[in-house]
Write the structure tokens for this entry.
Amino acid sequence: MPSVLACINTLCASSFSIDEVIYTCPRCGALVEYRDEGLSLDPHQSAKLWRARRMSNLPVDQSGVWRFRELLAFANPETDRIVTLREGNTPLLDAPRAAAYAGLDSLTFKHQGFNPTGSFKDNGMTAGSTVGLRLGMKRVACVSTGNTSASMAAYAAAAGMTPIIFLPHGNISYGKLAQALEYGALTLQVEANFDQILALVRVLADELGIYLLNSVNPFRIEGQKTIMVEMMDQLDWRLPDWVVVPGGNLGNISAFGKAFRELKAMGFVERLPRFAVVQAEGSAPFSDYFRDRGEFQPVTSPETLATAIRIGDPVSWPKAIDAVDSSSGVVCKVSEQEIADAKAVVGQCGIGCEPASAATLAGLKQLVASGQVDKSAAVVAVLTGNVLKDPDYIFKYHTGQLKTPAGALLNSTFGNAPVVVPNEPGRIADIINQRT
Ligand SMILES: *Cc1c(COP(=O)(O)O)cnc(C)c1O
Ligand SMILES: [Zn+2]
């Protein structure tokens, strides 16, 4: 059976050629996903092959995404140009201090901040931009002020396509925008809100033949799938009890669910790990859905300092519900204070991450305290972004100036402010001895 883009709405069940430029189902409007139903791999042989490719100097083997290309058969390295910056290959890091903070015996971080542009968006963008190129696109676009822009700009530039970024006017996050400017993206600030711009971009993309690389792009999900496959390779295929991830647009949790669904169907694993998705209190529609199990209700004005998860109306929620339910997973939400303190603890491990990523540790602390996660469980928490994505937040936290979006001052619980000292060796020696 050829691979297709399939509508996830079971009542519609339409499928489309992977050569069609669609992001949602043209018949019913539901999300689509890439499916390769004829795929069958020998788990033992494949695991060996994927491991052996780590020794190769071929770009597609050095990529921590395309190393698993049997799972990404929509592109063929023999005939398609693969756009890679050697994404993936992110480490598993043991973090005893963070484990103790959460009340766990041990804790492992999978740090996606080690990616070329500093976030897991690169795992998806290598796939999305490869498809864009294969479809003959000259221009790609997204609406985002954050890591998606940074990543898309880099991959488009590497592929020789022109990146176009749409921003809501006056809503700019400079750290990440700087990367997009550096990689040469045409950056358009529109005087409209996020949803209005998204509608506008969809029309423009159709008219001008621009390929959209927003969260809804199904091939980005495929690239992000490999985060879990790489993790399993690194764990010698020993399944963790829990995988913890922050939730914004919910693309990542959807990708993780799909990865394990496919691995299980082919016999690589016998079951799924349990997923825990963590949201910020001010932007927690997914967490609220799991509390009430009613209709999915978007949040109208999402707020959190963890800007990568400041999403009120996450596009991938139907796929994400499936991923959580099929893994007997849980969803929780954490406060700005909990995120800020957890982030400082990740820093104290010598690891560091951006605010959204720290929601994982904050959530774990809650889930261990409530007994939902056992203290002896084998846990992998995914750190989604690099510590340098948001230096302003760090400086404010450590100097006692960090405020919530509503203006409340946060405690600088693990604050580490610079110390101003006089030019006197004796006094400086005293201070060093007192403080270290
Ligand atoms: C995009 C992003 C998220 C949110 O991931 P979703 O797939 O949208 O749920 C979390 N953390 C970081 C650093 C991100 O860039
Ligand atoms: Zn449909």
Q: What stands out?
A: The CA atoms of residues 403 and 409 lie 4 Å apart.
